[in-house]
Amino acid sequence: MKNKKTSLLFVCILIICIVFLVFKFQNNNEKPNQKQRKVQDSVGVSIHRDMTENDVKNMANAGFQWVRISVRWQDIETRKGEYDFETEGYDNINKWIKKYNLKPYYVLNYSNSLYEKHRSITTKEGRKAFARFVSVTVKHYKNQNGVWEIWNEPNITKFWNPQPSYESYVNLVKKVAPIIRKEDPNSLIVGPAISRTYPGSLKWLDQAFNYNLLNYIDAVSVHPYRDAPPETVIADYQKIRSMIKSHTDRQIQLFSGEWGYSMAPKPNKKISEMKQAEYFTRMMLTNKSENIDLSIWYDWKNDGYDQSEIEHNFGIVWRSGNPKLTYLASQTLTTNLKGYKFVKRYNLKNKDDYLLEFSNKNEKKAIVYWTKGSHHNSTLPLESGSGKAISMLGAEYQIEWKKGTDFSFSTSPTYVFID
């Protein structure tokens, strides 16, 4: 009897150990990257495949650090088991990205009619085939300290049809994220790149979080397009950060993965070239003030010549390649705030006014101010001093002021580097 009890106790202990090891293994799979690399205070731009080397060179000249491009499965695998990155131009773009010291932000995108009927991945065969595509692609472009984003805007029917499904999307992430982690451990895994930050979009995002999406990614990417001024995004970011915090204790970054303003006219509204440059600058500054570590503008070049077509008018440069005012605004922001970190936003009496403070490693202080309201004068909380002012488009001039001096607030941000 004693031997039977001893044997039973041994079996129980063995079962407990096996259960513990299985749980630990599953838990490690759920949290595959506790020491993830981080991106800090970076700006990037979205592109399409019709880029030239000169385009990529000018992206670097405009001050961008990241280039976001969709790697489409349908383009790469046109025959089962055969992968071609050269014919569609991906290899050339990657070569130019490296040449001009940029970083790749690759979007692993969309389905393939060889395996799926719709623009979504819902079958076991489709997930396996997509995983093979991801493995081949990541091996092909690894070791660049880049970003791998899994899909684009899966919360809308345009990009995940016939019906967006957070379960199917997260199942896909669970399948391919460990592959990316294994093949390119110094990269970042990003998702889900949701369309807009409407209540319905945030509900979908919260459902994905409930389905353990945050255990597989390093950063949450959102596309906060809007007709309203860029500053209105602040409340949305705060909601998303609160959602992240309620679902995980991991340090998940928040990226503005795609956002821009088209110059095509809309009912009762048209974005002028100057207004686009203002919104670009204010978007980037607002994102900095909200600690959005990577901000991607959509997009680099106008997609066509039709001034009434929305998709033809997002570019920083015209279809010809000539720069818009937004190009100058980008150069001004990235050149002058290089090496500066956001410190704080001041609370001003006029809630439409914005005043941000930055500093560099030498403790040199810079401020940027603007209004989203009408042009007016207002005092800044500064002691008497002097410095160099720079307009949104790069005009430089020396200024002096006394405590209580009025400054001119306009919708175009002004930079002041204090002596």
Describe this structure in words.
- With 419 residues, the protein is an alpha/beta fold.
- 34% of the residues lie in helices and 22% in strands.
- The protein contains 10 helices and 16 strands.
- An 8-stranded parallel β-barrel has the order 1-2-3-4-5-6-7-8, surrounded by 5 helices. A 6-stranded antiparallel sheet has the order 9-10-11-16-13-14, covered by helices on one side.
- Strand 4, helix 6 and strand 5 form a beta-alpha-beta unit.
- Helix 5 packs parallel to helix 6, helix 6 packs across helix 7 and helix 9 packs parallel to helix 10.
- About 4% of the residues have low confidence.
Mean pLDDT: 92
- Count the DSSP helices: 10
Biggest sheet: strand arrangement: 1-2-3-4-5-6-7-8
N-C termini distance: 89 Å
Biggest sheet details: 8 strands, parallel, barrel
Element order, helices and strands? HEHEHHEHEHEHEHEHEHEEEEEEEE
- Rg to the nearest angstrom? 24 Å
Structural class: alpha/beta
Shape: globular
> Uncertain runs with pLDDT below 50, 5 residues or more?
19-35
**Number of E-state strands:** 16
How big a fraction of the residues is strand?
15-25%
Helical fraction equals 25-40%
